[in-house]
Amino acid sequence: MKFNTQTIHGGQLPEPTTGAVMTPIFQTSTYAQTNLLEPQEYQYSRGKNPTRTALENSLASLENGSNGFAFASGLAAIDCILRLLKPGDEIIAGDDLYGGTYRMFTKLFEKYGLIFTYVAMSNTKNITAAITKNTKLVWIETPTNPLMKIADIKAISTAVKTINSNILIAVDNTFATPYLQQPLNLGADIVMHSATKYLGGHSDLVMGALVVKNKKLAKEIHFIQFAAGAIAGPMDSFLAIRGIKTLHVRMQRHCENANAIASFLAQHKKVSTVYYPGFKNSESYTIAKKQMNDFGGMVSFQLKENTKEKAFLFLENTSLFTLAESLGGVESLASHPVTMTHSAIPQKERDKLGITDGLIRLSVGIEDIEDLLQDISKALELV
Ligand SMILES: *Cc1c(COP(=O)(O)O)cnc(C)c1O
After folding, report:
1. Considering 48, 136, 149, 197, which one is annotated as catalytic?
2. Which of 165, 208, 315, 354 is close enough to 77 for a disulfide, judged by CB 3.0 to 4.6 Å?
3. CB under 8 Å to 280, separation ≥6 — which residues?
4. Could you tell me which residues are beta bridge partners of residue 334?
């Protein structure tokens, strides 16, 4: 099956007892057992629920893995990966991580003896140089938030596995989605999603996902999912399945609209920098072109007058772009990383990374492009 068919049919069979074409919401915690000596497939919904199973099969299909897992949130999925490790184990991670991931690493898991090293992932040598005999996991996010930096998944996986094939490579694929890049095909061991974003796609659920291609790893993850219990519920699983069925058409439009907006911003006199991996002159372009099918729906830009006041003026004056955290829904959103998603990062760190007061992040939706451009244009006039 091609990707555009997998989103609709991957792992999805009509429900066997009724033939229902759409997987029903199996809103049940437990299942009648008929034989004490032979455990049934479904016993208790923390372990397995048919709606979640359908979603997990769909996820595995989309990422070309053997097993998918659905969690209560993206962060619950990351938490599960870290529980594969033990005190003293080392993790190499990007220096430009999603804020919640960084918070989990520094405020939760350092306390339990995991050791994190942060490096710029745009250069593979930074990663290989940081490997020690205790390195167990490399954590990649690409494109990054909010500066859209790109890491070369294949180059990193190959280089790391050459040094030690037991080091796990995990990729947060939230921004790209499997429509744009499939990390397991590029050498990664684990793909993680905040399904809250593009997979769900309608800003109506909070959910996380993992996909792996190795049966032994799948067994370990299933055990943690079952034993720690941060599972996705049946209603949310249903919504995610429904969202995934249109992932390919939504992503195509997200990418088209983002491309038009990035080009518009790049020539605007009140904008100094546009962060978008689809510009031929950006340092990310060559890798993005190689590992992604398109450049995604996220665009960040910095105002020439690089102040909070001007950024707030812009954000107050858009009407279609709603001021909100999150991303990946059908509706366009705008956010101010310094006061919203990245407020926990100290100013000195932010300045070093380029997350400045006049930086605005757009999650470009799938509305009509003329309306979106007009909305941005009008707000920029008032800045
Ligand atoms: C939102 C997000 C997460 C966290 O996911 P939740 O579903 O909010 O827990 C992790 N990584 C990235 C890149 C995200 O955008």
Report:
1. 197
2. 208
3. none
4. 323, 362
Rounded CA separation 200/241 (Å): 8
Per the CB < 8 A criterion, the answer to whether 40 and 188 are in contact is no
Of all protein residues, whose CA lies closest to atom 7 belonging to ligand 1?
74
361 is catalytic: no
80 Cα–ligand 1 center, Å: 14
Alpha-carbon distance 5 to 245, whole Å? 9
User: What is the predicted pLDDT for the residue at 380?
Assistant: 98
Q: Which of 98, 118, 179, 198 is catalytic?
A: 98
Q: Tell me if 285 sits within 8 A of 278, measured CB to CB.
A: yes
Stretch 249-255: mean pLDDT: 98
Residue nearest to atom 1 of ligand 1 (CA): 194
Helix (H, G, I), strand (E, B) or coil at 128: helix
Give the residue among 70, 337, 335 at the shortest CA–CA distance from 193. 70
Model confidence over 319-346: pLDDT tens digits?
Answer: 999 999 999 999 999 999 999 988 878 8
Catalytic residue status for 172: yes
What's the CA-to-centroid distance between 100 and ligand 1, angstroms?
7
Encode pLDDT of 70-101 as tens digits: 999 999 999 999 999 999 999 999 998 898 99
Report CA(74)–ligand 1 centroid distance (Å).
5
Please give the pLDDT value at position 344. Answer: 76
Q: Are 127 and 153 in contact (CB under 8 A)?
A: no
- The angle at the Cα of 133, spanning 123 to 163, to the nearest 5 degrees, equals 50
Closest CA to 357 of 325, 311, 304, 321: 311
Map tokens 């659920």 to a residue.
205
Report the predicted TM-score, pTM, of the whole model to 2 decimal places: 0.96
Instruction: Determine whether 46 is an active site residue.
Output: yes
Read out DSSP for 191-212? EEEETTTTTT-SS----EEEEE
C-alpha to C-alpha distance for 372 and 260, rounded to whole angstroms: 10
